[in-house]
Amino acid sequence: MSNETVDHGTWVISNEFAAVSLRRVQTRNGERLEITSLGHEHSIQLDAITLEALTWSTPLEVGKGLETPFGPDPSEPQHTDATARTENDERDA
User: Domain ranges in the chain?
Assistant: First the structure.
């Protein structure tokens, strides 16, 4: 495989709720799929194992990210793993 970057074009997928562009990019750590929101200033680059992990999930599990798409809800208390373990230990006792 050569080190040349080949432009395979950009795909755009959209519906009445969102529009994203998809393109394959070469990074120093290998190929990634870059997904860019066309309605917001957000993008992400995912490697092959991350993309494969999406196939292990159901659409419902993946969709849980839509509950707070821009990060944690600031009005809800945030729990660390240690806090969650402590609460579970107290409940089980």
Answer: 11-92
Comparing CA positions, the residue from 68, 20, 25, 10 lying closest to residue 40 is 20
Q: Reduced to 3 states, what is the DSSP secondary structure of residue 12? A: strand
Task: Name which of 18, 61, 63 is nearest 40 in CA terms.
Answer: 18
Residue 64 has which token pair?
């849980």
Cβ 28 vs Cβ 45: under 8 Å: no
> How does DSSP classify residue 72?
S
Strand partners, 16: none
- Quote the CA–CA distance of 25 and 23 in Å, as a whole number: 6
pTM of the complete model: 0.64
The answer for residues whose C-beta is within 8 angstroms of residue 79's C-beta and 6 or more apart is 87
Low-confidence ranges of the chain (pLDDT < 70): 1-8, 71, 79-93
Distance (Å, whole) CA 30 – CA 10? 18
